[in-house]
Amino acid sequence: MSDAVPLNDAVPLVDLGAAHAEVAEAIEAGLRRVIANTAFVLGPDVAAFEAEFAAACGVRRCVGVSNGTDALELALRALGIGPGDEVVLPANTFIATALGVMRAGATPVLADCDAEHLLLDPASVAQRLGARTRALLPVHLYGQIAPMEALQQVLDGRAIDVVEDMAQAQGARRNGRAAGALGRVAATSFYPGKNLGAYGDAGAVVTDDPALADRLVALRNYGSPRKYQHPEPGFNCRLDTLQAAVLRAKLPLLAQWNARRRAAAARYDAWLSSADGLRPVRTLPGNEHIFHIYAVRVRGGAERRDRVLGRLHEAHIGAGVHYPEPLHLTGALRSLGHRRGDFPVAEAAAGELLSLPIYPQITVAQQERVVETLLRVLRG
Ligand SMILES: Cc1ncc(COP(=O)(O)O)c(C=O)c1O
Questions:
Q1: How far is the CA of 69 from the centre of ligand 1 (A)?
Q2: How far is the CA of 261 from the centre of ligand 1 (A)?
Q3: Burial (CB count within 10 angstroms: exposed 0-12, middle 13-18, buried 19+), residue 247
Q4: Rounded to an integer, what distance in angstroms lies between the CA atom of residue 225 and that of residue 229?
Q5: Short-list 28, 27, 45, 49, CA closest to 37
Q6: 232 near 221, Cβ under 8 Å?
Q7: Confidence at residue 2, expressed as pLDDT on a 0 to 100 scale
Q8: Of residues 99, 96, 90, 156, the one with CA closest to residue 124
Q9: What distance in angstroms lies between residue 194's CA and the mean position of ligand 1's atoms?
Q10: Residue in 165, 191, 323 to alter for ligand 1 test, most ligand atoms within 8 A of Cβ
Q11: Residue 319's Cα: distance from chain center in Å?
Q12: Which residues of the chain have pLDDT under 70?
């Protein structure tokens, strides 16, 4: 049986147009404001967004930068991490987590995730720490925070900085504390599809440490703490001011949008709980998951998962896979010398993962169509 349906019944993986419709006026006013005052680089909108985002994360400082990969690189550089240093991160994350480490000149050291939540596994981290480890880089994958207390326990008071990759977790909380306030420093991306997304590339570093923030302010702006002072080399990776205006218009809606994602995820959870052939990715107790991605696992391996994915696409359902290949099996990280089998939990997950459409504006009817189609495909 074909699942072909009229295109107007399509359910996209994300719907940026639907989000824009809710904020169009505020965004247009913000863009007009920047154009009217012609402060196109840094200026009041960047400073205001930084203050507003820092407050949302519950930390003192935010430094706006050009994207999430630069945010990771700068966070590590600001900590003085570079060549000869090792940074431990999960094998199951987006490639940019490792690229940020490599761009800082440090060596990524991969660790496995746990099978229930797919978050960085403290037991695996314990095996990967060494004399050169300078930072631990947990990723708050899919919108839920890594097990920070257990990871801290493994670090056991050693001089290892915790750097959060919160690109997928703006507004997520763990035991009441927000992502961004759970380590020494945190890096985020405002890529358009993120829970807080700009209208182009953008990112930020947040920290409660004012000295570190001052260092970041210089690093993102030619290494210049004050105009025409250059005590060290830096970069040009500032947050674009028009993007700051977009982010300022959207930030007041973030909590409400995250709540709507959580409600949508709860519906999927309920409707899929007894589905044969699916295995859930669970929420770690204590976490307020904000479902940047709603992932399930299709039992039976990559071939079956890919068949299911193909059938969903035929039915115009924008499912995805985050991510089909763990980092240690990518060409980009070949130099680490890993082999298949090195991180078995991440590998098994990569062959089974399936992401379903989720965004604040998804309707119950759209979710019903996703679930009905998925259950039919799984049966067939
Ligand atoms: C976990 C994670 N880290 C880092 C990044 C990099 O962010 P950007 O694309 O803004 O460079 C992303 C997203 O793209 C991400 O999902």
A1: 6
A2: 20
A3: buried
A4: 7
A5: 45
A6: no
A7: 46
A8: 90
A9: 9
A10: 191
A11: 18
A12: 1-8
Alpha-carbon span 225 to 216, nearest angstrom: 9
Q: Tell me 170's DSSP state.
A: T
Residues with C-beta less than 6 Å from any ligand 1 atom = 67-69, 93-94, 96-97, 139, 165, 167-168, 189, 191, 201, 203
- Closest ligand 1 atom, residue 201 Cα: 10
Q: How many residues does the chain have?
A: 380
Neighbouring-strand partners of residue 295: 355
Which pairing describes strands 177-178 and 133-136: parallel, antiparallel, or unpaired?
Answer: unpaired
The residue with tokens 């380590």 is: 183
Beta bridge partners of 298: 278
Q: Report CA 76 to chain centroid distance, whole Å.
A: 17
Is the overall model pTM greater than 0.85, yes or no?
A: yes
Work out the angle between the directed axes of helices 44-57 and 16-37 (0-180°, nearest 10).
Answer: 140
348: which residues sit within 8 A by CB, 6+ positions away? 115
Burial 256-278 (b: 16+ CB within 10 A, else e): ebbebbbebbeebeebbeebebb
Q: What is the DSSP letter of 183?
A: S
Helix (H, G, I), strand (E, B) or coil at 359: coil
Give the residue from 344, 305, 369, 360 showing the smallest Cα distance to 11. Answer: 369
Question: Which residues have CB under 8 Å from 184's CB, separation 6+?
Answer: 79, 161, 162, 163, 207, 209, 212
**The pair of three-digit structure tokens given for residue 266, joined into one six-digit string:** 């709860």
Q: How far apart are alpha carbons 120 and 104 in whole angstroms?
A: 22
**Amino acid found at 127:** Q
Task: Provide the terminal-to-terminal Cα distance of the chain, rounded to the nearest Å.
Answer: 9
Q: How far apart are CA 344 and CA 360, in angstroms?
A: 34
pLDDT of the residue at 1? 41
Q: Which residue has the tokens 């105009």?
A: 227
CA angle 29, 32, 35 (to 5 degrees): 155
Q: In what order do the strands lie in the sheet with 353-356?
A: 278-280, 294-298, 353-356
pLDDT the model gives residue 9: 87
| Alpha-carbon distances of 283 from 119, 147, 162, rounded to whole Å | 10, 11, 22
